[in-house]
Amino acid sequence: MPFVSHRRGIVSILISAVCLLSGLGLGAQVEPPARSASTQGAAAHPHFLRSFDVSHFQKGNVHTHTTLSDGGSSPEQTIAWYRSHGYQFLALTDHNIQSNPARYASLQEPGFVLISGEEITMTGNGRQVHVNALCTHTRIPGGAFGSAAAALSTAISQVRAQGGVAIVNHPNFDWGLSAADVTDARDAALLEIASGHPYVHSAGDATHPSHESLWDIALSSGADFMGVGVDDEHHIDVSSDPPATPGRAWIATFGELTDPAPICAALALGDLYASTGIDLQRVSVRDQRYEVEPVPAQAQAQAIVVFIGAGGRELARLEAGDGPAVYRARGDEGYVRARVELPDGRRAWTPAVRVSN
Ligand SMILES: [Zn+2]
Ligand SMILES: [Zn+2]
Questions:
Q1: Is residue 36 part of a domain?
Q2: How many structural domains does the chain have?
Q3: Using 50, 70 and 90 to split pLDDT, how confident is the model at 40?
Q4: Residues with beta carbon < 5 A to ion ligand 2?
Q5: Does 173 map to a domain?
Q6: Ligand 2 mean position to 243 CA, how many Å?
Q7: How close is the Cα of 6 to the center of ligand 2, in Å?
Q8: pLDDT digit string, tens, across residues 211-268
């Protein structure tokens, strides 16, 4: 299987151009060429196939409902909540209704922007199949499809045709998607692995993998999803049903600029980390090293950094402590990603980066 899909190659080129032009300074490096079989030998060493070194992040939520569909608060109230709680961007994603950021121009300001969004709400063989369309410009209709695979492929191809970014939402909601459905939806850049919505079965059950395990299954099959955390916010008021309140799960994109364009570029590449309450100070991948560093207060609060490889295999479990937790590639991992854990249950997840062997 190819380590880097054609899509990733194109997006990498595009985001590299964006970074150069905007001076983002994401630390994108020219990666060493893959060693050919004829040059492999004692001198060859395993290395990561992408490089980045990031210490500036933009916090955002990309799954949000309002009174325009089944949410309990107006778009204006919802935007105001996120703007006043430390977020730099937000996508309103009502069911089959596309949000237009220009409509809410007076609610945006330097450092807080809206990106366009919609939850394409479909059924596949009678079960719920939802795909978020981000950074699109035209509404994409939902519909009833004969299979989940047909619904996913239709929605994702339409998002991509508009140059947008697709999220495969809550695979276990209504037990709508199988592991094969998720894996085959690999043209979507993003996959929900953490949700603030209490009814989407993020942890799976006795016969269904968790959302995080579905991510590993897809990654192990060559898909290049980045996992995201979302609120799937429906009500600011906790007494409402469902109690899907804001501030439970989010993403932090790589980069210093809060304009929609660089945020959308980061989303397309999966240049972000997901969180349910952990803030990272720095994430760096280069050559043989994968480094993850929570903010000092959380690092001191018994944070653990777990490095995970293909098949969901745990590679290392390191205390955060002072300075970064560092994992050195061995060459047999397939890919490496990190999950940061706090004793109180909060988590963060960093990108999966493939390793040469
Ligand atoms: Zn949904
Ligand atoms: Zn939703």
A1: no
A2: 1
A3: very low
A4: 119, 232
A5: yes
A6: 13
A7: 30
A8: 999 999 999 999 999 999 999 999 998 777 888 999 999 999 999 988 999 999 999 9
Helix 260-269, helix 6-22: angle, nearest 10 = 150
Residue 99: closest CA among 110, 89, 85: 89
| Dist. CA 168 → ligand 1 center (Å) | 9
Which residue segment(s) compose the domain that 290 sits in?
6-31+44-354
Q: Which ligand is nearest to the CA of 63?
A: 2
> In the numeric block, which tokens belong to residue 132?
């978020």
| CATH value at residue 149 | 3.20.20.140
pLDDT > 70? residue 335: yes
Please provide the distance, in angstroms rounded to a whole number, between the alpha carbons at the two ends of the chain: 13
Is this prediction's pTM over 0.85? Answer: yes
Ligand closest to CA 242? 2
CA dihedral 275, 277, 281, 283 (to 10 degrees): -20
Q: 127: CA distance to ligand 1 center in Å?
A: 12
Report if residue 37 sits inside a domain. no
Distance 95 CA to ligand 1 centre (A): 8
Nearest to 172 by CA among 150, 193, 151: 193
Gap from CA of 62 to ligand 1 centroid (Å) = 12
CA of 8 to the centre of ligand 1 (A): 26
Residue 269 is which amino acid?
Answer: L
Q: Pick the ligand that lies closest to the CA of residue 128.
A: 1
For ligand 2, the distance from its centroid to the CA atom of residue 346, given in whole angstroms, is 22
DSSP string, 152-180: HHHHHHHHHHTT-EEEE--TTGGG---HH
Q: Examine residue 248 and state whether it is found in any structural domain, yes or no.
A: yes
Amino acid present at 14: L
The H or E element containing residue 219 is: helix 211-220
CA of 31 to the centre of ligand 2 (A): 38
Tell me the CA–centroid distance for residue 198 and ligand 2, in Å.
Answer: 12
Band (357; pLDDT cuts 50, 70, 90)? confident
